Predict the 3D structure of the following.
Amino acid sequence: MRANRQSGPKTQQSDHCHAPVIELEDVSFGYDHQKVIQQLHFQILERDFVGLIGSNGAGKTTLLRMIVGLLKPTEGSIRLFGTPMNRFKDWDRIGYVPQRNAFNPLFPATVKEVVMSGLYGRKGLFRRIAKKDQQKCTDALGALGIEHLRDRKIGQLSGGQQQRVFLARALIHNPELLILDEPTVGIDTETQRMFFQMIQHMHQHHQITFLMVSHDLDMMHAYLGDQAKQVNGKLQFHVRHSHETQDCSEDDLMHTLRHLQSERPFEAMAVKEG
Ligand SMILES: Nc1ncnc2c1ncn2[C@@H]1O[C@H](COP(=O)(O)OP(=O)(O)OP(=O)(O)O)[C@@H](O)[C@H]1O
């Protein structure tokens, strides 16, 4: 696995050999007078796959938005990779795919530019691109079956196509933590299946920690089991740890993308849409 992948400082000694990636300490949040999350105490460790399940309005998106720093807890604290949220700067260690929203059809960026912005941030949307980064972009687009869309405007794509663009964007910088908010909404069943296969491979063979919201209970239970590790209000946390699995000899996540690309999992989809 990625040799230079570092763990954050181990903030607390536990009997577990993996360091905490996300630590939520008595976190509460409310919008105006509506309390959404109350005194949530939960820890996500390196190589955990956490599936967050809950009915509509349970607070799943709200929790993810707090974890990526877009909302501030009303009470309690959050640490990322051992660092308190207000001092955390290593955002490139985290890939985040928010819940899908209709994209403004007039937004001028192309698919390639949106995916590349996963490497360079917002400033990089229109900057000159290094050759090795071009290759990463090609790999990510290929793995998700959207090479043929690379020069299209993002706002002119279908919802499912846009979702794959945002997945490619989240994967391109080889993140240590992937946070996915209903990533397969609007995607057809076959592509959903391929997507779950892909993230399971990433979880089992690479040092990637996952936090994923999904209403696909069949998939969540199949991979993470029926028993929630923790319940808080209407939120259920299902966890699977990949401690037992071997690392890939490959040291880069792009291996997974190339591997998948060689199997052409999304080819049928791409042809259908082409
Ligand atoms: N910006 C906001 N202002 C006020 N209330 C909000 C806001 N965003 C969400 N809420 C409310 O907070 C509650 C939790 O919303 P949230 O989006 O976190 O739920 P969710 O579990 O992600 O739901 P879903 O499964 O429908 O996506 C809901 O009652 C929602 O109406």
In short: The chain has eight helices and ten strands. Residues 202 and 208 are 7 Å apart (CA to CA). Residues 31, 36, 54, 56-62 surround adenosine-5'-triphosphate (CB under 6 Å). Confidence is low (pLDDT under 50) at residues 1-14, 263-274.
